[in-house]
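User: I'm putting together notes for a lab meeting next week and I want to include a structural view of one of the chains we've been expressing. I don't have a solved structure, so I'd like a prediction I can at least talk through. The sequence is below, exactly as it appears in our construct file.
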Amino acid sequence: MKKLALVLAGAALAAGLQAAAVELKSPDGKLTLTFEVKALAGVQGVPCYRVDYQGRKLLDDSRLGLELAGAPLNAGLKIVDQKTATHDETWKPVYGERSSIRDHYNQLTVKLEETAAPRRQLELTFRAADEGVAFCYTLPKQAGLDALHITRETTQFHFAGDFLAFPTYHAQGIYERVPVSKIKPGCERPLVVQVADDCFVAIAEAKLVDYARMKLRVAKDAPTTLEAFLDAERTKEGEVTGTAPLTTPWRVIMAAGSPGQLLDNNYLILNLNDPCALADTSWIKPGKVIREVTLTTVGGKACVDFAVQRGLQYIEFDAGWYGFEYDPKSDASGVHLDPKRSKGPLDMEEVCAYAKSKGIGVLLYVNHLALEKQIDQVLPIYKRWGIQGIKFGFVNVGSQKWTSWMSEGIRKCGQAGLMVDAHDEYRPTGYTRTWPNFMTCEGILGDEEKKRSNEQTLLTLFARFIAGPADNTVCYYDNRVNELCSHAYQLAKPVCLYSPWQFLFWYDRPAGAPAKVGGAGGAETKIGDAPELEFYKAMPTVWDESKVLSGKLGDHVITARRSGAEWFVGVMHAGEPRTLEVPLKFLAPGQGYVAHIYSDDPALKTRTNVKIERFRVTAATTLKAALIKNGGCAIRLVPATAADQLPDYR
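Assistant: Thanks for the context. Below is the predicted structure for the 650-residue chain, given as structure tokens.
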């Protein structure tokens, strides 16, 4: 065991170290978590912690503890044992934003015991990594505590000041800018807090598998203290039951010098989850998707042909293919069209066979009502048809019951060889590391949401994507592109907003498809033949390396991602026209590249007003992205060859 940067402050008492403060430092020494059992507000034996980052206090004394069936286990405690450890390994995800991930941390495990009868025990595990600190509770097996009933957590995050926070209250909600003291109950995680211009914090949750979801609220009479509460705490659904030993999800405090660095460090959430549980992952395939909404054989084949032409990997049949999705009597084991969405005909097996012959996969949307009663029945049927994955529609979330149901559904699909996309309020906590068939989540303020704006997209990007991938439901030809942003901005979105499955033409219908019949989501737009769609065709959805080059919450982002030898760069901004610099220092030194630059040019008399330019560049080049109001820019960088006779960028 390597020696940790762990300091005991004060003399240890013979009664069990209960007066000692313990410091746990990150490997780089920038983050310090201090744990102590002390008197707080006149109460003795309270476990609490503090967090400092680069000498700046982030969190002051913050209480820890649980309540079991109304009996608190958060005071009158002493330390009876403590252990330290260090861990350093590099692991390779099946896919992701980077091809390898380092998991390096120092760990402290503390065993606490009540000083009076019934002398129940509680363990706390703390980890300090360069990206952030995390802790979880364990109720060990012990006399009188075999059956557990957790009614409440007393976990606190006591901020050292009334810092600026960026809360939202549901998955597709609007992000606000308010002081910590003004956060309303039910705040989602991750929550980003700006401590200073060069210091940003995110409060998050990891490894939520069989437990109630954590949300946040301001503690009573403590305006800069947030407390965790189990979702739906005021009802029985907010409680957690189980048997000892029981370990809670991780509570996470990330810290970095910029919002872009916080986002770059989001792999910490994966590191706090278990390794991959699947022996064979060769069938798990990221890719680009077009949504099929006509629910017809002809429409399905037209989407397949479009996918082949445009370099997509999947088509997805949307709601209505097995009847009205909100009718609990609808049968998802066969095609039973909802007449309000399609007049048919739809031969699912014929479309699947046609798609397979063209190398295209088929995904199905299935509402949670059908999955809750039929999941064991339908999975082998879908495999027989040739389906590759399922979008779980409008899943229930929050309580232990529904968290467990969702986790079990992902596992069942993984064991059946099917990939999963979760739709609506579900927020990931890193379970995709353990079950990488869990690809992405729809349920953010994406293109299907009317309330979104460029500012909101650039808040969502820096906050929600800390938790993991999200499907922004990108559309390209829909009128909302012209109303809210630009087409070059849309090209940049799949680079900046990570998702292994990218739905690129949400409201767009390919040539050859019949008209859509009714349904939600507004009118469709016929897809054109814009030359800049070559960018989408060349663009992958998973990466070997990713980095935010520049970014500001709600203002702009410049993201660079590498796949093999090629780099893709996305530039998005909100507000009036401006020019942003894109230094290419990340390119391989001594290697020339061809930069394919896609930018907005309102002077072009085309449907999408996107200009394409090509230049030779090197790592010494700094591109200047001239952005129109609420516009963007997309760039593809390909190693140059002798045949590339192009001008140098100036």
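A couple of points you could mention at the meeting. Residues 82 and 110 are 4 Å apart (CA to CA). The radius of gyration is 26 Å.

User: Perfect, that's what I needed.
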